[in-house]
Amino acid sequence: MKLAEAKHAFVTGGASGIGLGIANALAEAGLNVTIADINEEAIEQVVKTRANQFRGVKLDTRDRDNWKRAKEEAEKVFGPVDVLINNAGIAPHGKPLADTSFESFDTLMNVNLIGPANGAMTFAADMRDRGKGHIVNTSSSVGLSAFGGGVGVYSMTKFGVAAMSYALRQDLAPHGVGVSVLCPGIVATNLHANTVKIGGESNDDPSSKPKPTVTADEIGQMVISAIENDEAVIVTDKGFWQVVEYGIAPVRAACELREKA
After folding, report:
1. What are the pLDDT digits (tens) for 213-242?
2. Phi, psi (5° rounding) for residue 179?
3. Disulfide-capable partner of 133 in 16, 128, 177, 243 (CB 3.0 to 4.6 Å)?
């Protein structure tokens, strides 16, 4: 999709971190942007920075009625949504699946997987019927290859987002609507603070985390390029294929074994 033809973007988790980086990039590309976030104070602060282009709406992505209201409010001001950025999410809690409480499991699933699905189901039909639009769903590097300790449930949600994106891309491509899945690596954001804010568990130990390899603003520019070029997958870090290949190797081995049988 050529962004010169787009007028309105809707960005969840748009008041901070990767969401804000993408929102700023879209605004610089000339779009009006609805900043959807659960943090009203953060929304107010961000909207002040681009008063003519940004409009805020409080949104809990788990709440389907909330999605309907947010869509109606946004489109009354800026018109139909051309670009949906399904970015809102929470951090992994650092626990193996065997030690995860059902409550924590449900929170991660509802925010990281059901939330983006709610967004896609709210906007996709309109985009399809208009023959125009692009959806970007934020997954993760661990949504392509499960690695590292304590991210089992988180990885499940992010694999789900990737699967949803691939399926949605096939569904919408014949109608002129693009879909990309964003798979960022380590980025400096306030993800853990937001996780705690909605009642999720957080393993916020800075000493245990790798250093960020890319900024939110840089990711914003990657997303712009991906929309323009209809890229199916957006990977933010160099050298990541080695990690993905490690995860795919058992599948290849299984397929080769079956061919020999």
Report:
1. 899 999 999 999 999 999 999 999 988 888
2. -140, 130
3. 177
H-helix or E-strand spanning residue 177: strand 177-183
Q: Name the catalytic one among 67, 78, 154, 159.
A: 154
Tens of pLDDT, residues 175-184: 999 999 999 9
**Could you give the CA distance from residue 160 to residue 143 in angstroms, rounded to a whole number?**
8
User: How is residue 63 written in tokens?
Assistant: 């709440």
Q: In the 8-state DSSP scheme, what is residue 151?
A: -
- Asked if residue 108 lies in contact with residue 160, where contact means CB atoms within 8 angstroms, the answer is no
pLDDT at 261: 82
**Could you tell me which of 22, 15, 53 has the C-alpha nearest to residue 37?**
15
Largest CA distance in the chain: 65
- Over residues 31-90, the pLDDT tens digits come to 999 999 999 999 999 999 998 899 999 999 999 999 999 999 999 999 999 999 999 999
Domain count, the chain: 1
Domain with residue 175: its CATH number is 3.40.50.720
Structure confidence at residue 147 (pLDDT): 74
For the chain, helix, strand, coil in percent to 5 are 55, 15, 30
Q: Which helix (H) or strand (E) holds 43?
A: helix 40-49
Domain membership of residue 185 as a residue range: 3-260
- What does pTM read for this prediction? 0.90
Ramachandran bin of 107, using left for φ above 0, alpha for ψ from -120 to 50, beta for the remaining angles: alpha
| Cβ contact 46:190 at 8 Å | no
